[in-house]
Amino acid sequence: MTDDGMMSILTELKRIADALERQAKPVAAAPDWTQADCFIWNPGQLALASVARVNRVDMSLIRGVDHVKTILFENTTRFADGLPANNVLLWGARGMGKSSLVKAVHAAINHAGGKPLKLVEVHREDISSLPELMEILKGAPFQVILFCDDLSFDNDDTSYKSLKAALDGGVEGRPDNVVFYATSNRRHLLPRNMIENEQSTAINPSEAVEEKVSLSDRFGLWLGFHKCSQDDYLAMIDGYAAYFGLDMASDALHHAALEWATTRGSRSGRVAWQFIQDIGGRLGKRLVTPQA
Question: Do the domain assignments include residue 291?
Fold first, then answer.
């Protein structure tokens, strides 16, 4: 074979090798758990990105959900101590502090001392990559809360099967150092018409429904959040005003808060926070939330 022929073959082999390397999945990077207490899963890089400043509020500011707050705190405390704990689904009314509570409980437990508890957020669209993420988390030297905010599935979405396996399925099961917390507006995570469609078209309707509903059954705790009363709403307003030192008469504050809720057509923790931001701006007061 001539030198030119050999060079041509080598060039072609290098081109093929480069193409295969571009198509190959990246190697999972070992995370530096000392960088932060919170991380975001990046499935494209198979890596965890640390979050230096977490968007959260103090647990004392989350009002109107005292019962579920206590349950979540106790479950998380047991998990942080290495004791058995349940996966948790926080479901119900919008804006009532479901995701805020998860982040606030995590911060409160870490603030109390002891071995740091890590929080890893996985976005809804990345649920199908949970097997790769679990492989990384099971080797972590810390207890890890795996958190997905606003979790739900559409009619043609089959990624819920990856979630079912990650929660407690498979041969290995869920790692002892990982617990899964999710928030959703839906109790069963799947739209009602999806369940009904499965029931009407399946050979065995009851089995089809069981397949869909069994996803929620993987969560040992279901914590319901419901629309708040006027008293709860005003208690949230008072709590925020005291916390941030907003100098405004109580009667005037309540009147303005109720008017704000009327224009929004609802009362919730989110509406209360939006009102407080507006009042803080009017009073020229910066709303600085301490970071744990």
Answer: no
